[in-house]
Amino acid sequence: MSSLRDRLDRLRAHSASSKADESLGGAAAEAGNGVSSAGAVGSSSRSGADARGSAGPSAGRERTTKDTEDKGISGSGLHPALAALHVEEVAGEYGSFLRRRAVYPLEHRHGHYVLSELIHCARRLKPIAVRQNRKRGTPAADALPEPMDIEAQRLLFLDTETTGLGVGSGNLPFMIGFGYADGEAGTFTVEQLLIRHPGEERAMLAYLLGKFAGVTHLVTYNGRSFDWPVLTSRFVLNGWRPSGVEPGHLDFLHPSRALWKNTLPSCRLSRIEEDRLGIVRGEDVPGSLAPELYMKYLSDGDASHLRGVYIHNERDILTLASLTVHFGGVLEGRLGAEWALPEEPEELFRTAAWLADHGGEQHAERLFAALIAEGTPGGRWLLPAAARLKRLGRHDEAAGLWERAARLAESRLLPSAEAHIELSMHYEHRRREPGIALDYASRALDLLQRRTSLRQSDRMRAELDAIRHRLARLRRKIEATGRLG
């Protein structure tokens, strides 16, 4: 990484110096009064467009050449690869940078979902915002105000491409992509800002600040832990200090993991796109290659290296919109109604549990009912589903799941005795049938002994001691009462 840092430092040495004593609020105001947000509208030159739906971005220009020049926007003198992507140079108070803009009609379909559904589904995302924007575990958490209702037109869909993976000062965001919906105009706009050297960073950040006006939440994928900390670090390094209330977060990495971490090979955005959102990218540049391609561009000036980075970043932003529709629809209760239920029992359970945690208990109950129906294959979901029923006081239903889990455990090489122990307690304390409780306790002991013969630990020995104590107590109870059940 030393060569990368040296190269960036040399490029920075050639850039124009700029003042660093502006406040964040002042910079945002100046940015808002600088470059017009109605510059050129570029078409998206990307492969696999048919797989993602019709009604792509507009390819026309909204302003004449003279008009864009008056606003500090120029497309002349750029590399042909950039011109083909409708990239333009934007000049403002703090210097220049490159901007690409693609405008999609809200009728555009990205995978399973149409962008127009954003307007309706965004309102359902408040439970996610509540959980993500509070400092959980702190005494003051309950005293925090509830976030305002979420409106699609006040969301900023954000994705950055950076020179590294950390959130420290050495990581430079060389491309910032963001999208926003306009219900009145019927459009979804994607803008991508690129710097040709570090000296253009300040101008790019100032323009971005102007886009935060009226934004209540940032929609990202791991943005709460990565993209936003990187950007705030760069603001500080450029002499700006945060002022006012920062946007809230709708980071879809966390709900994606909650639903799919046990059923998909990974929770990378590209995997979720293909397996759950119906999006086929076709040929694509992995995000991990973006820093290398950017450095090639810095080295030889050939902007064709960046074409795949532009397309990858644009697709990520559109996918954030699709995730917004998906999770909004789940919270609205569309699964099992308008949408098909997840096919895998583990995913069905995790979706139902996620819904219950986010205030959708009524919708979750329908999913749980489908899950525990007879004939559903057993799996690791059985024990947590039974634990939920136990917490709700539905002990007989929980016993049915424990019995299924017990049969499954007895067929495994390294079995768990949890279901047998729960059944032993259930029959001893609730059903008052100590004989059946003794039988389950004895079978639990056999399972634990089988397990400890293969692998021993202090925890296993403690479990063995506990079940032996339970067996002894049950035998004494049966001898005292003179009955088995």
UniProtKB/TrEMBL annotation:
<feature type="compositionally biased region" description="Basic and acidic residues">
    <location>
        <begin position="60"/>
        <end position="72"/>
    </location>
</feature>
<dbReference type="InterPro" id="IPR038720">
    <property type="entry name" value="YprB_RNase_H-like_dom"/>
</dbReference>
<protein>
    <submittedName>
        <fullName>Ribonuclease H-like domain-containing protein</fullName>
    </submittedName>
</protein>
<feature type="compositionally biased region" description="Low complexity">
    <location>
        <begin position="23"/>
        <end position="59"/>
    </location>
</feature>
<feature type="domain" description="YprB ribonuclease H-like">
    <location>
        <begin position="156"/>
        <end position="326"/>
    </location>
</feature>
<feature type="compositionally biased region" description="Basic and acidic residues">
    <location>
        <begin position="1"/>
        <end position="12"/>
    </location>
</feature>
<feature type="region of interest" description="Disordered">
    <location>
        <begin position="1"/>
        <end position="75"/>
    </location>
</feature>
<dbReference type="Pfam" id="PF13482">
    <property type="entry name" value="RNase_H_2"/>
</dbReference>
<dbReference type="InterPro" id="IPR012337">
    <property type="entry name" value="RNaseH-like_sf"/>
</dbReference>
